[in-house]
Amino acid sequence: MKADLINPFLAAAFDILKRMGKTDATRGQLRLASSPVCGDEVNVAVGVTGDLLGQVVFCMTEETAKKLASNMLIGLPIVALDELAKSAISEFSNMVTGNAVGELGSRDLICSVTPPTLFMGKDVTVSAIDLDFLVIPLQTKLGDITIYIALREAIS
Amino acid sequence: MKRVKTTQLVPGMRLAEDIILPKTTVTLIGAGTELSIEMIRRIESLGLESVGIDETQAHSRDETERQLLPVLARNHKRMIIAAEELIKISDDQPLEEQAIRGLADDILNQVEMDPSLLLNLTHIKAYDNYLFSHSVNVAILTLLVGEVLGYSKKELHELGTAALLHDLGMLSIPQEIWQKHGALSPAEMEEVRKHPVYGEELLRAKGFSEEIIKVAREHHERCDGSGYPDGKQEKEISFKARIVAVTDVYDACISSRPYREQLTPQQALEQLFAEKEKYDPVVLNAFISVMAIYPIGSLVVLNSGQVAKVIRVSKNNPFRPEVRIYFDREGNLLEQPPRINLAEEKNHTLYIDRTLPAEEHKKLAAMIDAAAGRN
Description:
- The structure holds two protein chains of two kinds.
- Chain A contains three helices and ten strands.
- By secondary structure, chain A is an alpha+beta fold.
- Chain A has one domain: Chemotaxis protein chec (3-Layer(aba) Sandwich).
- In chain A, the strands form two sheets. In chain A, strands 1, 2, 4, 5, 6, 7, 9 and 10 form an eight-stranded antiparallel beta sheet that branches. In chain A, strands 3-8 form a two-stranded antiparallel ribbon.
- In chain A, helix 1 crosses helix 3 and helix 2 crosses helix 3.
- Chain B has helices at 37-45, 61-87, 97-113, 115-122, 130-148, 153-164, 175-178, 186-192, 195-205, 210-218, 239-254, 265-274, 281-291, 358-374; strands at 2-5, 14-15, 19-20, 27-29, 50-54, 299-302, 307-312, 322-327, 339-341, 352-355.
- In chain B, the strands form three sheets. In chain B, strands 9-8-7-6-10 form a five-stranded antiparallel beta sheet, with helices on one face. In chain B, strands 1-5-2 form a three-stranded antiparallel beta sheet, with no helix packed on it. Chain B has a two-stranded antiparallel ribbon with strand order 3-4.
- The model of chain B has no long low-confidence stretch (mean pLDDT 84).
């Protein structure tokens, strides 16, 4: 996977975290992980289709998810990860991926995203057939958020 | 037209006749309306045996609203006028408890019928008399929150009555004060802050229930003890008063007042949450599920660059309301603004990127209203 495909995702994550999550983020060391990868307590997968094919997965602890959801929900106190909070985390993932894919469009890579799927549980694994994941660790004041990206160009 | 037994109604059928609330002249559902599950439940609860159904093809949702909205708008206006007549107390015109309770019932019926359309109406701040439109709108918002909290019909009735009467004490304060342009003097402010006490006295004299009296007395109390007149905290404040505290502040914020700028719905929510320690978290949670993050009436910018207005919100999906796109990405007003439900899977690649700053919100909202007026 080309490294320059990653920049739109990073830029989108920083932007959405700042505007919706009310937090700055710093990027940790990028690395490659072979499939499958382990998730965290809260995980959202968004598929990418079109000129690029693959998956983007957002992983975080439940504590981080609750804080992120609360900030997205104008500071609503979140006691448990209920439907409202889950919709916030899903929308966060949808916005980051959608925003990045939109940016890729200006490079003539026309893609679309599939609806986000949220799944819970530390022991879940995520696979991407024949692809390695590029791992982007982000540190925020809400806690760590890890983005796994596995994308390849579609064969036309 | 054919007559269909109430028990055999299904959503999508279209009414061929008006449904009138028994013993009144209030049109509950107008002829031509496509029935929803909620409306059918409502018709059943009225005890009607059968209704006239149009046998031609089902209408689209748009057309349903085109027909339903004027009915609701008429009723909304009528409710405000009724509130004015009923609530305004003078020596020769006593406050009629039964009539007030009847009005609370009317509002509850409207709330059950189509919350989203009714919420649209609360954003139309065209009425001269702030106090009475505010009372009706607070009653609408309060009942919607009460429904989310699972109140029984009987409790909702009490809650609606209390919400209608929460500002009654304002009538004991000289009009020059609460309709004054510009900031109030400390003495005037002190007078205004007595309205909960006046409200309590009036309602007690009229023999209203203790619960209703408490809402009038305590709706300016705050959970952190910063409210008035008594500086009560959390559980010392009755729960119904904690609900009205939230809905009262929200409606006041989105209304244009002589002494204060009108806030956008989103700003009003932000204002409320900026001081969330003042309010009950359970009430705030219920309020968000009623209003969503982008409340009805909000102008938002989609990731596609278009500007849209929120026209319906969906429960548990506060980021994905139904919107009508009014401006294309170049900022041109669309002649036939399309309606998009962001909660539908086929639309999920669209999302709300941001809300408009207040100035722009005001400008574009005025353009939309002007265009609507032309049609």
